[in-house]
Amino acid sequence: MGMKHWETIQQHAMLGTARAPLTIADLPATIAGELSWTPIDAEEDFLRLAGVAWQYGQTGRLPSAISTVTSVAAPEEKPYSSSQAANELQSLVEDELYTLVRLWLEYCQAAGQLARPEILPALLDLAIRRPEFRTMITTVAGNRGQWLMRLNPAWRIDTPAEDDTTVWQTGKPEARRALLAHIRQTDAPGALVLLQSTWATESAADKVAFLNILQAQASDADLPWLESLQEKGQKVTTAITNVLKHIPGSKIVTAYQDVLRQAFVMRTGKALLGMLNKTSVEIQEAVAIPAEIFTTGVEKLSSNKQITDQQYILIQLVMAVPPVFWQTQLQQADARAVITLLQKEQHTALYLPALADAAVTFRDLTWVRTLLDHGDEVLIDSAIVLLLKALPVAERMTCAARFLPRQPQAIIELLLEQDEPWDIALARAIIAYTAGEVYTYNRTFYRQAVHNIPVELLSYIDTFTPAEEAKKPYWRTQANELYRLVSWKQQLQKSFSQIN
Amino acid sequence: MDFSEEQVLAMAPDESSKKSGKELANASKWGKRACSERALWGECQGSGKLPYQAQVDLAAVAFKCTCPSRKFPCKHGLGLMLLYVRDKKLFTETPEPDWVTDWLDKRSAREEKKVEKKEKGAKVDPEEQAKRQATRLKRVKEGMADLKLWIKDIVRNGLHALSDRDANYFEATARRMVDAQASGLAAMVRQLGAINRFQDGWQGAFLEQMIRIYLVIEGFSRLDQLPENLQAELRTWVGFAQSQEEVKAGAGVRDTWMVLSRRSEQEDNLMVERTWLFGTTTQQYALILQFSVRNAVPELTLMPGTCIDAELCYFSGATPRRALVRQQFGMVEPGVVKGLKNWHEVADMLAAVQMTNPLVGASPVIIDGVIPVRDGSNRWLLKDAEGHGVVLQGNDDRAWKLMAVSGGTPLRLFVLGSAQAFEPLGVWIDEHYVAWA
User: Which string of b and e fits A24-57 if b means at least 16 CB within 10 Å?
Assistant: First the structure.
């Protein structure tokens, strides 16, 4: 029986037998011919005929021929991760433990494995919701993932691989910025050439964004082009100035140095009844500041009553010249000697925190290390995060553990930003602190920090406890959460250390 | 016997238990964790003074916990087993403590008692029983006459006239059937009333259900002219229950039964759990129904994807499917399962079933070599090697998951359906069965 007859019966059912009685003639001949039929009443006849027709349809229905053809996904070259790992990912996604999801993806990628096909829909859905995972998901999804993305428009996140020139010429602003930043890291002059190639056609907003990227590896090689730029817009001009302020040989930095040369003068006087020579730094605060200095972003007025306007101007200039300048200017052998000299007197110590800024701006690691080792309390309190940030990761962690008691919250915040895991000593120092600060460091913090916390910490969780009795129940809850998260991390490491 | 995480999670009664169970799969939550060859147990500190004692029977997969949860298995049982599945090394092998031995011994004693009870049987006064049955039969027939009249009324006025009928219209008739001691028909009427009359194509579903009710009424009026199995089938549809003792007294079928799917649904005040099994030697399907009210623990815990060596007894019917587990002999490694080759084979099988039993509902099928495809009108289909297909029922998510597993290559599936629409409930991935119920 075809669908048409069944539809006819349904139409009769809709209208009712009072208006549209069903007769044997409404059935296909193949059925009607087989029936020995005696009518009873319209309703009973309908039910009997419809019943026979329905049964006939149920027993005689053959599967339809399907013309739709589906392509076959290309075979994979990498092995699949274990089904255990697939279950883990499913759980992590369901529980919204995204830091661990990120770890899962990193481990999978590092192990050269692929996500199993059964979890791809969950993973591709995640890629739509969380763009930051897209690149990693595209990698671990393998050919099967690419195939699914082509079939399901809702999952279309894979952009065809484009060469750098195409991205630069036709890409979206974010893609172009990412490309420039990447090239700047690996080939600084190449990034400059790329930017020069389209500079005239760029919008002001893009120019500002690109100049900010150039700051990262700014060097003397950038000077001729940057100093030749004649821009009309204020924002672009400011951005150019900011890059130039990062280059020791720039005209701006040289102008600043000229002013500072006049302002900071070494004086040798007599001490101890004329028996000893005393060397000190004399600051000519009233030194004349050329008007053009103020066109480079230097502010004239101090907002701090403890600091005069003139001091404030000089502080800004100190911040913007390479710290090695002071070794020459103050005739000192090294950074430590300069620091010791400036620390001697209050009016010179005022400028030390500005030296921390300068050391970071000009990426002078010797100065950064010396300031950390020999800086006074004021300097450390004002610049610790800045200085730690400038250090290479391993060194940063050693130093961070040392300075943690000074500014724990700011340092922890800084350390959360790094991709690398904390070493166990640092992790223990941090958790020992956070265990006592249960109201500030809650479940959300541990869910983020698990990325950095090493699994070795599992053996130490029981050793942490807040001093205050009232905080202990809170800590127990948080310690459980911490244990759960780090156990998860350990489990993930185990799952990816063995290929299924 | 190795269990997988998904098998453990498939036993969770609901999503929140799943989530809580996962949170408890954390070694720090368990003061003691130990196992023996037949069980694992642990102590978990809850909100009470004493820790909860949770234990799992590994031989027949059963849970027990001292927590007051009404859910079964509770989050502690699930958490403990998940932890075990993830890392067995976290459990020390020790002799069972008394509270574990007691429970395991009681379980086996209960099994023995059941067998004894079966052997003894209950004493019934046949005269009284016949009298009761005759009274009931009279009531049922009266109720059926009213029901037939009610259906004919709908047929006369047409389905369009139902637009101004609310749920009470169906509920009143369902109650009339309950009064007439025809609970099966009452359920059929409620199902009729539950059809969404705002959904496209509702007329077809409504008409089919109405025809089923009519067939039961007509068939029951000619009961003595029908074969014995069909009589039993019709009696079940009307609401005459077969006693479990009677069923268990019948012939048993011992086989290695693969647990294909397990689904729980709330029906009125009852939690109904439907578990489909497949006998790897007899190639028979069996449906285990378990009913529980709150606080009650289902007698059996069957884990999808596992295999049990067990003896089953089928309820009588034209196509016996519903069964009881008479005895379990333990878990065994899953064997090789093969499905039907194509949809034509399925159609032949279903036609044979339909001819024997016109009332048969959705049928279980294991089919080989089907590929999920989506046609031009975004309809999901399951296509066999000969190019024939049926509609894939269920939501888009399930279909895409199937698509991901397939990658355009043929799959072996466990599906439930009839005629041209089937819902996938499980799939074999690299010869390993994964239930999706």
Answer: eebbeeebbeeeeeeeeebbbbbbbbbbbbbbbb
